[in-house]
Design a protein that fits this description.
The chain is α/β, with parallel strands linked by helices. 53% of the residues lie in helices and 10% in strands.
Length: 562
């Protein structure tokens, strides 16, 4: 039952619809204040009464029934207490009947949501800085599909620019094909770092690099073949990371894909009188919108990120007819997105309003900042491997006889990396700590996974349980746990609306904490009565199902045993 809707439809506030009232109803933080509450402060202006008077008036007109047992006006709030037996019965029925689809919805109606995330750079290894965009984008991708949208995952490869001229220059100076084939992107990265060190004392190398990149643009056979080879080696390297993180893409169309699609954009800007010349460059003046000019073409006629991103946005709209197009990119690029979104709007693209920059904070290790050019980089694969290794040691110590320790350690280690990046609000900078994310007691995926293993152990010991009936009198632990499970569908919706998977992560921890409190304070397998045991087993099964669904949206596996 949708209790908020049920309550709202039974209230009578003149000039305020049931939908508006339902949107105002909240769950109080303190159970003593009731199960639901209507804050009447926002109604004061419409109803021309004080919040206290409104709450008292609505309470006087409200009649308790078998669903809502009591309504009480307190300091401008109208608090409602539900029939807890009926409510918990509704929750369990919903979770257990819907199973893996609990929390899912068809609200998306098949509308397309393009999600641009991860977007690795060719010839550079995946480092810790790529973690947030990759796992955040992948979580949003799963959430959107779960809610009935058609998500299109796009890996907008960084495969365009002078850096590829630098790499060709480095390879031709010092590269060995056999060694590069053997070492892959690591060898390319070493060549790139060496090139930059040499260029510090030989600035003429910059001109050579620009010349090589121009040859790529001109489709020079030798340079194009090297470029394609570097791309192949990179995708092979990152495929291992994506496999570990269970990340998928529907398109790998990168910057170079749009190299022949920029000219029509520039021409359209010119036709619409939006282009201006400034110091030899072609720009769109955005001073009226409190932004610096958006540079479309440099003095030498070459394009910039904005030009390519506009071409990409137009291509995506024409190809996918998206409902929304999301860009999961660090907050340092805020201005860039504001600029090219505004230029598309000025071009008369009505869908420019559907472009969304999903900004996130940076990830670093306790060791500090990184630089690919200087060779000071922490590679993501090394971080994942270290987490899996540490997880294996912890699991072996806690459960030395556990079967499939390697498989469990992999789920725990990878889960720790993902959860560590998705537990806080996306905009916060993260300092990644191995010890913190692998803590069995803290607010971590390990704690949640261990809770799942505990619930699974209880269910396996119980065998096939009979049907259940919700007792007339519920403990606080039973009711609190059921309410936490009931919050999952609404949390998924909120995570989708705000592009915030951390809402799901935090609910996972909340459910795990409430289950463990229930587990320690309420006898399950040794309950006093058989019907009570069966009810508690049903609550345990519903908990395992909800946590499994929630973790799967984040890309985290659930070990049966730990």
């Amino acid at each position: 039952m949708d209790y908020k809707k049920y309550i709202a439809e039974r209230l009578h506030a003149e000039g305020v619809s049931a939908e508006e009232l339902a949107a105002l109803i909240v769950c109080p933080p303190d159970p003593a204040m009731g199960d639901y509450a209507l804050p009447c402060f926002k109604l004061a202006k419409t109803l021309r009464k004080s919040p206290v008077a409104i709450a008292e008036s609505l309470c006087a007109d409200f009649t308790a029934d078998e669903v809502i047992g009591k309504a009480e006006a307190v300091n401008g709030y109208l608090n409602f207490t539900v029939n807890r037996t009926g409510m918990v019965g509704d929750i369990l029925k919903k979770v257990l009947s819907e199973g893996a689809r609990y929390g899912a919805s068809d609200m998306g109606g098949g509308r397309v949501v393009c999600i641009d995330y991860s977007s690795v750079n060719i010839a550079k290894r995946f480092h810790i800085g790529h973690l947030s965009t990759t796992v955040l984008g992948a979580a949003i991708y799963r959430i959107m599909n779960f809610l009935g949208y058609k998500a299109v995952g796009i890996n907008h490869l960084g495969d365009y620019g002078t850096q590829f001229g630098k790499l060709i220059s480095a390879y031709k100076l010092w590269g060995d094909r056999e060694e590069v084939e053997k070492q892959g992107v690591s060898a390319l990265n070493e060549l790139y770092v060496r090139w930059h060190k040499e260029a510090e004392t030989h600035p003429e190398m910059e001109d050579e690099a620009r010349a090589y990149f121009k040859k790529i643009e001109e489709k020079d056979p030798e340079c194009l073949a090297l470029f394609d080879w570097f791309k192949e080696l990179t995708l092979k390297d990152v495929a291992r990371i994506y496999e570990l993180l269970d990340v998928r893409f529907d398109s790998y169309a990168g910057e170079s894909f749009y190299s022949d699609k920029m000219a029509p954009v520039v021409e359209e800007l010119r036709e619409k009188g939006l282009l201006k010349e400034s110091q030899g460059a072609q720009i769109v003046d955005l001073e009226a919108y409190d932004m610096p000019p958006c540079i479309i073409l440099k003095k030498d006629g070459s394009s910039l990120y904005a030009t390519r991103d506009m071409a990409a946005a137009i291509y995506r709209k024409n190809t996918y007819d998206f409902y929304k197009c999301l860009y999961v990119v660090a907050y340092q690029q805020n201005l860039h997105f504001k600029q090219f979104f505004k230029v598309l709007e000025l071009m008369g693209k009505p869908w420019a309003k559907d472009l969304v920059h999903v900004a996130y904070g940076m990830v670093s290790l306790e060791e500090g900042a990184m630089s690919t050019r200087k060779g000071n980089v922490v590679f993501l694969e090394d971080v994942i491997d270290k987490c899996i290794e540490k997880a294996y040691a912890i699991v072996s110590e806690k459960n030395p006889d556990l079967e499939n320790k390697e498989e469990v350690a992999k789920k725990v280690g990878v889960g720790a990396v993902i959860f560590g990046a998705l537990y806080n609000s996306k905009i916060k900078d993260i300092v990644f700590s191995y010890d913190k994310v692998l803590n069995f007691e803290g607010e971590t995926s390990v704690y949640v996974q261990y809770t799942c293993a505990r619930a699974n152990s209880v269910l396996q010991k119980a065998g096939d349980a009979a049907g259940y009936a919700v007792p007339a009198s519920l403990t606080a632990e039973e009711f609190d746990l059921a309410r936490a499970l009931d919050a999952f569908p609404e949390t998924v919706l909120s995570a989708a609306e705000k592009y915030e998977p951390c809402l799901i992560s935090r609910l996972c921890v909340d459910i795990a904490q409430k289950f463990n409190k229930f587990y320690f304070n309420c006898k399950i397998l040794t309950a006093e009565r058989e019907e009570l045991k069966n009810f508690r087993l049903a609550l345990t099964k519903a908990t395992l199902q909800t946590l499994t669904n929630a973790l799967s949206l984040l890309g985290i596996g659930v070990p049966e045993k730990m």
